[in-house]
Model the fold of this input.
Amino acid sequence: MFWQLLANGFVTGAVIAIAAVGVSLVYGILRLVNFAHGDFMAFGALAAYAFNGPLGLGMVVSALLGMIATAVLSLVLDLVLWRPLRSRRAGFMSLFLASIGLALVLRQVLLLAYGPQPHQYKVNPYKVYVIGTVRLSQAQLITIVAAVAAIVAIGLFLSRSTVGRTMRALADDRALAAIAGIDVGRVIAYTWVLSGLLAGLAGVLAGLVQTTFDPNFGFQLLLPVFAAVVLGGIGNPYGALVGGLALGIAMELSTSSSLLGGVNPVYKPVVAFAVLAAALMVRPQGLFGRARVV
Amino acid sequence: MSALASGGFWAFVGVVAGIYTIFALGLQLQFGFSGLLNFGQVAFMAIGAYTLAILVVKEGWSTWLAAPLGVAAAGAAGLLLGLPALRLRADYFAIVTIAFSEIVRYVATNQDSLTGGSQGTIALGAVGEAAQYNGQWERFQARIQGWLGVSSKDVAMLVIVWAAAIILLALVWLAVRTPWGRVLRAIREDEDAAASLGKNVLVYKLQALAIGSALAGIAGCFYAWQFSFFSPDDFQPLITFFAWMIVILGGLGRVWAVPVGAGAFGFLFAGTRFLDFRPLSYLSGADRAYVRLIVIGLVIIGLVLVRPQGILGKRDEMVLE
Done:
């Protein structure tokens, strides 16, 4: 039972972690708490659904197309919304509120396009793989494989590639990075592409794991994602990865009946925040965040 | 278009604007005067409304005792949330408050024995019995209606809600003119400077948070009285964003801008009901509801872009940054 919950926790946590990296990078580089990120995830999931369901393309191709569509959407929104706000020197509050307005618009547009009813990818929901004592559905297995690949790729990209390193430099100290000759505009564009690709992937994986999803589901995923970002220290992408996995595993293990009878599964998102609150008491800057220097 | 001309409909819009005035006034005190990024305001409205309904139905309390207790519970919840959360950085605080409001909604949805669960207040009583908490209030409302000599009970409600709103607006308007209010504004402008003058910043922030939460609790009681029924779905985070929109639409750091913002919001929210001309008339009713929220989202974005100080705000007093 423990290993089963751990595997479920890894699946839940991987989806949260992949989404959280994007939120964390966008915050670090643009000082934007992107409230619309959950709806980006829903957009990716539903775009992939359009290719997979009505158009009948394969799941992998559909997922990739969904990710690309989300990245394009992120770039377009940077052009029409975030860039004008930057040129007006909009601060934290303005950006946050604009993202709330955007979240509202995006979700309603998705509802208009896809309707409120649940959708489903064309994968076999009954196919189950047994590894030792752990039973995994096909969707869970796909998620684990894709998530491990994505997490390794993100790690390598951020630590080894020039673009990844300039992103972290910019998140760390914007002025210093600009003085060092980093083209801020280009890095911002790369950030949106990466954040969009990852939001699309996380959305598709969440849709696979949940089996059915509707345009509202992005918002329900957003709160654990925010919790992971805060837990890892806002603006730190590695922290977001670890925070997401830790929260996912904590959420699933909390339902274990050997643990004081277990928590009712409907309260899983609450568990995420209880873990977060407890961690913030000890380290107010998040697990990997830098303490505020006064 | 007949509803546009009907007085009853506009009285209803006015009642909603009045409830939102009280609700957003709390946020104005918290953000506009103290700089607190509270994104969980709807939780305190829910706590006020649920405390009222639960005490009346389950404990048989008078609505006149249950309502003040609901307001007190909302204020106490603000204190309890603030004690740990206000130690966090402002952006972390914002996220924790949203989470808090979602947790309150989760608990209300899932603790059926306490709140009636997702079926709402109708399931508060015994199984198979439609619980009602509003009889006493409706008799009071009918008495006011007779006393005013008006034909519609919505008009009576309009007078009651706005009387309460104006009293509360005046109280807050007076409060922010005292030395206490000046300290709040000092904290908003520069926390470290206020602390260096010996002001206990955390205590002032806690007071602003608790009073603002209590105001949301009052709005929750009026919400409960007006609609005679509510469920956890009525307390979506969207409601908090409406309050933010009202405060920003009206103008930050200005007490009397709140009713202006609430009026504009009420007009926008109700007015978009009549987007039934072509090509919108080809859409179904549900689709038009989506279009209304798209309009509201675009207004929020447009305000941030074009007029960050709001309708009545002064640029030198406070502007969104």
Observations:
- The first helix of chain A runs from residue 2 to 30.
- Residues 113 and 215 of chain A are 9 Å apart (CA to CA).
